[in-house]
């Protein structure tokens, strides 16, 4: 606990190659990290001097709220002291974190079983856990007093996070166990041995909240049918009969991302009336069962994101994404008020205590890794419950980014976060590109960025190119289909902006990105071969055709809505023409490719394709393939290995610290 991951660092020092191992079983004794070494090729050993500077940054960690006790006086948090994130209980603000789960795999969600929990160490809870990074999430009942985890789901397919009924006896969740493709509705009732299939559906369905008896629409739960980020539907579903009642009109097509309910209230969010997602209350509109949507946030020019309702219906909490920073609001009988006094950052995971006026949430900022907080509605008190470690570093030295905007080829202004080291420069620049593409670079903490800025003296630019979320639905669709390369042109515009800034070194620019950001890195290397000095591609798309053909079936149609349908000959030809693997003859800059072998989203063959193509053309290529990971690196030994190799790669090719280019 609190020590450097020696197995990962020994690997880096010796650069051992090709030692794959099978993914560990969830409940069996885990193999040590040294016995699950990833395959590394092309990279030299990482110097001890660089590792010594990196170690404190590897020791930063975050805590996120998982659940609140009924009285709001204790909580479950997810945090990592070993190799993977586990469940801990915190009994008081800034108190000790008592670890409750000890598994080789990271826990992605946890909640006490409401009817059996008072918030104690021995109270049973339900956890959601993957196996080996393949995103085949299963649900388990966990009894800390003895017996360990007990599987509740089928053991196959992917299952969502449980949503508990008002009486705390039944959980509803989505799952693909029936056919591996469709997210059916499943339920588990306390006392039953296993979950049961409740309603069969076609497509991606996710339960959002249970409906009270006096709901304005008939049914048990509100369920979102997700088609794309700009197109979804809300339905009230009867779990006994499967009957569905649509909430909101069918046209115009719009996004309906969230819902919350409590006695006397049903709230939903949608962008049906404009560019941004607004909050509405669903209210009766006559005696024939008709309803209307009453707008509540029309004066807020940003997306409403998360919702949470007090179980007694007396209050609703919601967050607003204001240009990448969160604002927290409470709506009750006295009206709407903004919660003041929070650090500037991003709020996630809203959750009310069942029996107390206490709201819990997680908060992270550019200078704080992330912690669990509560807000007392009665007193107005904000309380920080965890103080996540920063590896002995002085948080006062962490760099706050500046929000900048730069012009692109069509006159649009592209927002970006810019981290700059002290001094006059000119500084080498790392351009960090987020994935998605329907995601957003936000005001959150990154120990990797802080290391690059503070220790290696790099500036880091984090753009939100067209297609990013958070800036309205028009912006979100500007890169769809045949406009894909317009987002790459936004990176070219950023290179122009860098060249015009005397404190930035346009001769030493690297691109770093994951998932769709990995595609952007590869496309940038091919599109601007004389302007980019190096690229780091993490779980990135190299070939849109093979990606769409081989991504998991439950994702394929969702991705076709964004990228285009590869089964159409003309679209297939276009997708092939922009795929980096088919433009590899233009790539000249050194390339570092990192991927999880079990990745269900972007299959590992995407990494192998681009690595082979670049090597065949004489490009310097480093590769890192983690056998026990999927879409990214969630286990400590893999995350540390990737971070150190990335740091060495950038230092070698951009300079920085004691290393010359």
The termini sit apart by: 37 Å
The major pleated sheet works out as:
9 strands, mixed
Low-confidence stretches: 1-35
* Proportion of residues in extended strands: 25-35%
As a percent range, the share of helical residues equals 10-25%
Radius of gyration: 24 Å
Number of helices: 11
In total, the number of strands is 37
Name the shape in a single word. Answer: globular
Strand order of the largest sheet: 1-37-36-35-34-32-33-31-30
Supply the helix-strand structural class. Answer: alpha+beta
Compute the average pLDDT.
92
Oligomer: single chain
What does this structure look like?
The radius of gyration is 24 Å and the shape is globular. The chain is built from eleven helices and 37 strands. Residues 1-35 have low confidence and may be disordered. The chain is 18% helix and 33% strand. Helix 2 packs across helix 11, helix 5 packs across helix 6 and helix 7 (544-550) packs antiparallel against helix 8 (553-563). The protein is of the alpha+beta class. Strand 26 (346-352) and strand 27 (358-365) form a beta hairpin. The two termini are 37 Å apart. The strands form eight sheets. Strands 1-37-36-35-34-32-33-31-30 form a nine-stranded mixed sheet, with helices on both faces.
Salient structural properties:
661 residues, alpha+beta, nine-stranded mixed β-sheet, four-stranded antiparallel β-sheet, 37 strands
